[in-house]
Amino acid sequence: MRQAPKDTAASIRKVSRRGVILGGVQLAFAGALGLRMQHLQVDQADEFRLLAEENRINIRLIPPTRGQIFDRNGVTLAANEPSYRITMVREDAGNVDDVIARLSTLVELDEDELNRALAEMQRSAPFLPVTVAERVTWQDISRVAVNAPALPGVTPEVGLSRVYPRRGDFAHAVGYVGPVSERDLARYETPDPVLRIPRFQIGKVGIEARFEEDLRGRAGAKRVEVNAVGRVMRELDRREGTPGADMQLTVDSKLQSYIQARLGEESASVVVMDVTNGDLLGIASSPSYDPNKFVRGISVADFGELRDNDHRPLASKTVQDAYPPGSTFKMITALAAMDAGLVAPDETVWCPGHMEVGGRRFHCWKRAGHGHMNLEQSLRQSCDVYYYDLALKVGIDRIAETARRFGLGQAYNIGMSAVTTGLIPNKEWKRAERDADWRIGDTVNASIGQGYVLSSPIQLAVMTARLATGTAIQPRLVRSVAGLERPVLGNESLGLNENHLRQIRRAMYSVSNNRRGTAYGSRIIEDAYRMAGKTGTSQVRNITPAERARGVTRNEDLPWNRRDHALFVNYAPYQNPKIAVSVIVEHGGGGSRAAAPIGRDVTLQALYGEDPPLEAYPAKDRERIRAQQARLQQVLQANDVDGRSRA
After folding, report:
1. How far apart are CA 348 and CA 464, in angstroms?
2. Which residues pair with 640 in a beta bridge?
3. CA 421 to each of CA 270, 337, 412, 459: distance values in angstroms, whole numbers, following the listed order
4. 167: Cβ–Cβ under 8 A, 6 or more apart, which residues?
5. 124 is catalytic
6. What is the pLDDT of residues 625-645, one digit of tens each?
7. Distance between CA atoms of residues 557 and 272, nearest Å
8. Backbone angles phi and psi of 486, in degrees to 5
9. How far apart are CA 224 and CA 235, in angstroms?
10. CB 587, CB 565: distance < 8 Å
């Protein structure tokens, strides 16, 4: 049925209105969409380009090369060596156990190291590589590379690892590095991102720890393209990091090696100090340990052996341990009295073998007594009663003040770990720390370096250097960092009466060169190198009445860990001092028997720079010294060959 023209016109008008409305809506939508696209593609183009780039490109850190450590003559003490390792990516390996089984037929895998790697795989993302074998040989790497198709996810790699060519000679001074732990990270408020690289090595003790930031350097970076799950597709560019700073120490590796060989398995320590500038030429603690074991990850058995050894090889005895200084402290008591004007060098004290103080009898080491003693005689024969008498005159506060003046009771910032302050007590200290009054008997004990007085070997070396020079010289272990020399400190005068110091030095000379001196048996015959010294014996425990009843009357009758410590300090040459030496032999008995011979041998070795001629020793000792030198040379040559092979 045909529509009337009137109806057709109305229908056309209605369709046109709908079309206009619909077209307008579509146009508005298209316009809004265009504006939105302009906003996203033009106005926010930089932001979305950055987001897209971050999704496509990752930044990976490149570990920096750690700075090396050298001795004063350029001998390497801590270096970096190529380390071949085998890594595995869990995601690519598929059946990890099956791949490990095939790998173990080609390379010998350490069980402990493998277990650590498997545990690390479970903690890490599946696409991250985990080291399953370290320090493998080139032959191992070759076998893995040849069999690569049968070892999915396994990759042979080469990197750098720390090595200590001199092994135990510098373990306590240089220290060692090891993988970063959560405890290490907790030390930093904002840890360097490089520390989060798996198995990144960080200094744990010694110089390695104290100068960690200098030695570590700054990480480099590489840009890598990754896919949606984060797997690396290709490397785009690389920026190498800044290597760590090289360091030079003041120690002489040749002298240090000699000292370690001379001490052998004794529980002992030796410090050799240049009195002109404070340089520590030798700083040895015995027995030592191989720091390379800690770099690789020490086994439970090896660590247990070190931990349970009663000679404490892990302890840095030179700076960490403090001992009663015994008679080596007597020079301090004498100088305190002389400085106060309370004693003259020719003034004598009667020694009957003991002194009654406060109702208690304080004995001299020589029970029969020394008779009349003046200053020089008292030091030469180490008469205790003479110093009991001085202490009663001068008092503990003056003694303590003089001790601190000579470097005792101070922790020296030389870069080693756990440096002790020792203890120089006085009345105020006892009230604050023990909540008790100071007693006169405490002063008597302190006068001969017993009681509460404690000193470390490095403090005794500083004391001796200051006695030799009259200056407030400070010890220095780090000579330079990144080629920049570190300053020499303490060349200013101590402000003491030079006549008093000369009298003390003359008395120390007689200790080593007078027939009645306690160190006469360990004297130096060569006139140009004669030394001035002082022996000491510090009591560990008294012999109990029950032990005396059983006939235990001598130090040698006691168990090793209850015997007295043996001490010796000296400087040489007497006329022109160059070095100061301190020696402590734990539970060694008398200082004249156990410590003084070591001090004499080390002194001559330091002055000559090599094995001294036999003519420098007393005639009675020459055959024994000849045999000792031959034996020590064999030890040193064996260690040197082994050290070179490790380097």
Report:
1. 25
2. none
3. 18, 24, 8, 9
4. 290, 291, 292, 639, 642, 643, 646
5. no
6. 999 999 999 998 887 754 443
7. 32
8. -90, 145
9. 4
10. yes
CB atoms within 10 A of CB 492: 9
Q: Which two tokens stand for residue 485?
A: 């020399």
Measure the CA angle with vertex 524, ends 521 and 525; round to 5°: 105
Amino acid identity of residue 328, one-letter, is: T
Alpha-carbon gap, residue 536 to 592, rounded angstroms: 8
Distance separating alpha carbons of residues 323 and 423, to the nearest angstrom: 9
pTM, to two decimals: 0.84
Provide the 8-state DSSP code for 540: S
Distance CA 162, CA 144 (A): 24
Residue with tokens 């052998």, as numbered in its chain: 264
* Tens of pLDDT, residues 112-131: 788 888 887 887 777 667 78
- 549 has a pLDDT exceeding 80: no
What's the one-letter identity of residue 54? E
* Residue closest to 417 by CA, chosen among 510, 317, 512: 317
Q: One of 83, 253, 267, 327 is an active-site residue; which one? A: 327
Tokens 């030095």: give the residue: 505
Element spanning 371, H or E: strand 371-373
What letter does residue 2 receive in the DSSP assignment?
A: P
C-alpha 287/C-alpha 293 separation (Å) is: 16
Integer Cα distance of 271 and 312 in angstroms = 18
Write the single-letter amino acid at 175: G
